[in-house]
Amino acid sequence: MLRPSAAKLLFALGLLGLATPGCAAYRVGNETLYAPDVTTVYVPMIESDSFRRDLGERLTEAVIKEIELKTPYKVVGTPDADSVLVAKLQGERKLLEFENQNDDPRALEYALTANVTWLNRRRQPLAPMNAIPLPADLVSITQTATMLPEPGQSDASAQQQAIQRLAEQIVATMEEPW
Fold first, then answer.
1. For this UniProt entry, which residues form the secretion signal (predicted)?
2. Residue 46, in any domain of the structure
3. Is residue 162 part of a domain?
4. Does any domain span residue 4?
């Protein structure tokens, strides 16, 4: 058991060791999750192959909000940024999960799929390496939401939930691999 004065001395030395710059550059907090050489991100309008209106615009807005909220990056409106996050909605589908005895839908699954490319200023991919072999500059992401029509949930609310989840997953791909 250390005496109180010895414990205070060890604590003070520990703080001094943390405050003294060393040979390596250490980062702490959520900054360690993101690329240190990127400060700004340009997100062009997300294109959509869907016949539904405004899906690309809604996903673009959700992605920009997620980047601003959860990353140290600043979203800018010019392609001269440190990086460019390009996404394209490849598809959407609605699948029947459960039905009642009268063949009325009780639960539907709404799915959105997007291809995402994150490029640096030199237009080289910044996305982390995947365990599944994919082209180096392309990451395909699918996100789903369950729609329950009987309690009154609409297509629009299921779409918004899937868009929000997809935006969160797109921004999560911007983290550096462990």
1. 1-24
2. yes
3. yes
4. no
Alpha carbon distance 149, 96 (integer Å): 11
Find how far residue 117's CA is from the centre of its chain: 12
The per-residue pLDDT string of the chain (178 residues; one tens digit each, 9 = 90 and over) reads 556 676 676 676 666 565 555 544 555 555 567 777 889 999 999 998 888 888 899 999 999 999 999 999 999 998 889 999 999 988 888 887 778 888 777 788 888 888 888 888 877 777 554 444 445 455 677 777 776 676 777 778 888 888 999 999 999 888 876 5
Q: What pTM did the predictor assign?
A: 0.71
The one-letter amino acid code at 24 reads A
Mapped to the 3 state alphabet, what secondary structure does the chain carry?
A: CCCHHHHHHHHHHHHHHHHCCCCCCCCCHHHHHCCCCCCEEECCCCEECCCCCCHHHHHHHHHHHHHHHHCCCEEECCCCCCEEEEEEEEEEEEEEEEECCCCCEEEEEEEEEEEEEEEECCCCECCCCCCCCCCCCCEEEEEEEEECCCCCCCHHHHHHHHHHHHHHHHHHCCCCCC
Tally of domains in the chain: 1
Do the domain assignments include residue 28?
Answer: no
CA 26 – CA 89 distance, rounded (Å): 38
